[in-house]
Amino acid sequence: MKRLLTLLAAGLVTILWAGQATADSTGKKKPSILKPSQAETCGDHGTSVHFEPNPSAAARKAQKEEKLVLVLHISGLFENSDFT
Amino acid sequence: MNALANPEVGKYLEEHFVCAFQKVGTFRIVGKNKQGGNVATHFCAPDGRVLHTIAGPVDAATMLREARWIVETATKAMKDCKGDGAEFKAILRKAHAEKLRTDYGLVVQPTLYDAPEAQDPKGALTYRDPTGRPLAPVLPPPPIDGPDVKFRFRQAEMAKAAGGVALMDRRGGRWVLNNQGRVHMLLAAHSMTKIEKVYASVFEGILGERVSTRPVEIVNPFPWHRAAK
User: Fold this and answer.
1) Contact status of A67 with chain B (Cβ, < 8 Å)
2) Which chain A residues touch B1 with a CB distance below 8 Å?
3) Considering its fold, how many domains does chain B have in total?
C-alpha cells in the first residue's frame, strides 16, 4: 500500500512539472499589471495613432513638423488595453 | 481608446497632431474588477499650452468633431491675430465661451486678462497627490452670467440628459452642464495655459479622478481565498 502511494505521489509530481514546462514553452508571458513595459512605449497600442514616447518628444516633433500636440492623460496602463 | 482605433480619426490626428500619452492618475483592482480610471485628451500648442480638451472617453465621431473644431478655430485665430499672442489667446477663450453659449445655452465672460501673481503652492487651492505633495493649482472657472435667450433650449436638453452637474450662476440660478460643457467653461478662462497647470482641474476637478503618481493599487477583498489559476 505504501509503495503504491509513493508511486502515485511521484507520478503526480511528474505530471505537474511537465504541465508547467509545457505552459512555459508556449512563450506566452503573463502580462504584468504592476510594471508597465519599459522597453517600448512608442507604438500603436491597439489604436490607429502613432504615439511618441513622451509629451516632450511629441512637442519637439510637433515644433519641427508645424503640427499641434495631442496628449492623452490617463489613469492606468495605456499599454495594457485591459486596464485602460 | 475605441475612438482612437477608428481609421478616420487616426488619419486626421496623424495629419494635424503629434500624439503622446501620460499617466496622471491611478485606479484600483479589487479582486478581478477595475475601479476608477479615466482619460482626458488635451489638444495643445507645441509649447504645451492647452487649446482644447475632451474630458472622459468619447466615441469616434465626437473625437473627430472636437479635433476638427480646434484645428479650424486655431487656424482661423492665427490668421486673425496677425502674430499677436495675447490676441490669439483672447480669440481662443472667446471661442470656448461662444461654444458654451451655442451648444449648452449658458453665457460666461471669457477671461481676457490673466492675473500676474503666482498661486501659493502650499495654499488650499492646490490639487495634491495622496502623499500631500502639491501637483497643480485649482483653476477657478469663470462665473456663469445666466442662460442665453436664443439657445436656452440647449439647457433644457442638458437638464434631461444624463451625466450633468448642477452649477449656480451669479444670481443663484441653477443650471446643468456635462463634462464637456464644463471644459468649455474652464477654458473660456484658462485656455492657452500650460498643460501642467490645467490638467488637474480637468482630471480631478471635472472628471473627479484623483491625480496621482502612484502605481496601480491591487486590492484583494478576500485574501484568505487563493487566487484562481
Assistant:
1) yes
2) 46-47, 81, 84
3) 1
Shortest distance, CA B220 to any CA of chain A (angstroms): 14
Inter-chain residue contact B18 with A75, CB threshold 8 Å:
no
CB contact under 8 A, A68 and B44: yes
Per residue in B20-43, pLDDT (tens digit) is 998 888 766 666 666 667 899 999
Burial of B218 (0-12, 13-18, 19+ CB in 10 A): exposed
d(CA B25, CA B31): 20
Residue B228 lies in a domain: no
Ordered by start, the domain boundaries in chain A are 1-30, 31-84
Question: For residue A10, what is the enclosing H or E element?
Answer: helix A2-25
The shortest C-alpha distance from B6 to chain A (Å) reads: 6
Query: For the whole model, what pTM was predicted?
Result: 0.77
Q: Look up the domain containing B91 and give its range.
A: 2-110+121-219
Tell me, yes or no, whether B69 lies in a domain.
Answer: yes
The ipTM estimated for the assembled molecules is 0.85
One-letter amino acid of B73? T
